[in-house]
Amino acid sequence: MELNWTTFLLEMVNFLVLVWILKHFLFRPVQEVIARRRAGIEKTLSDAKGLHENAEALRHQYEGRLADWEQERRLAREALIREIETERTQRRAELHADLDKEREKGRVAEEHRRADALRGLEQTALAQAARFAARLLASAAGPETEARLVELAIAELRQLPPTKIATLRNHPAGSNAMTVTSAFPLTEGQRVRLTQALATLTGNESPLRFEQDDSLIAGLHIAIGPWILAANLRDELQAFTEAGHGE
Amino acid sequence: MSDVSLLIEPVLQLGPLRITDTVVTTWGIMALIWLVAWPVSRRLAIDPGPAQTAAEGLVCAVEEAVAAVSPQHVYRIMPFIGGLWIFLAIANLIGLVPGLDSPTRDLSATAALAILVFLSTHWFGIRIQGLKGYLRHYLTPSPILLPFHLIGEVTRTIALAVRLFGNMMSLEMAALLILLVAGFLAPVPILMLHIVEALVQAYIFGMLALIYVAGGIQSQQRNPED
Question: Tens digits of per-residue pLDDT, B175-188?
């Protein structure tokens, strides 16, 4: 149990050298590689954390976008429903308007059709009445009837208004002959009275031309140039029928 | 374990220096450690192999033990404390190898380590706290305690050296006595106890050194206003 100073000193030196060896060949290199590994792990964890945060941010962004899309879809759906409802209401109103218009057109067309039918019936009735009257008068007419119509014509010539008389008198003489057409042969007395009445009326002393036309049924047809006086049954019946057409 | 005796005998004489087997064995341990550490340090990689895993496990265990006592100065005091643990564990166990003697059965070796612990305590304390600040802790909490601090410094260093020396020498002596009395293979159980005791003594010595060094550092850190 003695203390050997050489051993004592050498052991101190040996241990200090051993500490140096351990520090340079074991502790420091191993600590450095552990530090590098920890740095790598920290970097990996940091990267993973960053990726996780990015993924979370993307997830939140995606969820927000989905919510926005859902909101937009809901608003668009509501707008579409409102637009459809408005369009349907408008179309319904237009349809009702078109139906009313068509109904009105139908009603007017029906009225026109009824009026046309009524007018046709009236014309048919007038034509039948004219034919009936013409047939009746043709069978019943005679010189007596014509004599009364001649008297009636002379009376009408005398009752012409002054403006008409001035027009007849301003008519150039001889340019158009005055023609008197009768259904029956006129008597001499009737011809004289007609000649006097027309000469008085027109101031023209030129002789009249007398013609006969059975289609007049009875009465006279006096033509002074373009002016015509119809005092016969044919023209009266025709005027009656045309008056029915003009209504 | 040597079959000669418990005496420390010189191996060679270099002038005034008398080299004992303790020193030679220590050199052998140093060479062994270097031969193991050097290849491992050259092949370190991010993906460790078995040898690197063992080395990292050893370094991390030492680092955690030091950090548990002095977390602020781990990398400064870790080589010294780790060196104590590694060297003492190997030095205590190497006596189990036939023909070799444990260096720690020599009081000169344990005294040298104890003196190194004593000096390192002051070294680290002065480097970290400064000379004036470090010496002031001998006067706290009261200057009256200065003699007790000084006595404590000496006695704990002596105790550190004698404890390790006594335990290791006694183990080898017990094994030798059993071998002499009972014969071949009889000391095997005591040799198994030797393994446990060798590791425990290495741990105790290193932990006490760590506590002494950390105490020298942290004794002044408790009074930053000073």
Answer: 888 888 887 777 78
Task: For residues A234 and A215, give the distance between their C-alpha atoms in angstroms, rounded to a whole number.
Answer: 7
Are residues A208 and A153 part of one domain?
Answer: yes
Residues A94 and A147 in one domain: no
Nearest residue in chain B measured CA to CA from A6: B17
Q: Which of A80, A106, A132 is the last residue of a domain?
A: A106
- Determine the residue of chain B that is closest to A27 in CA distance: B59
Residue A124 lies in a domain: no
| Pairing assessment for the beta strands B17-20 and A209-212 based on DSSP bridges | unpaired
Segment A34-73, tens digit of pLDDT: 999 999 999 999 999 999 999 999 999 999 999 999 999 9
Report how many Cβ contacts below 8 Å link chain A to chain B.
Answer: 121
**Total domains in the fold of chain A:** 2
Contacts of B108 (CB under 8 A, 6+ apart): A3, A4, A5, A7, A8, A11, B8, B20, B22
Query: What ipTM did this prediction achieve?
Result: 0.89
Which structural domain, as residue segments, surrounds residue A167? 141-246
Q: Which residues in A lie closer than 8 A to residue B34 (C-beta atoms)?
A: 21, 25
B37 touches chain A (CB under 8 A): yes
The minimum CA-CA distance between B107 and chain A, rounded to whole Å, is 6
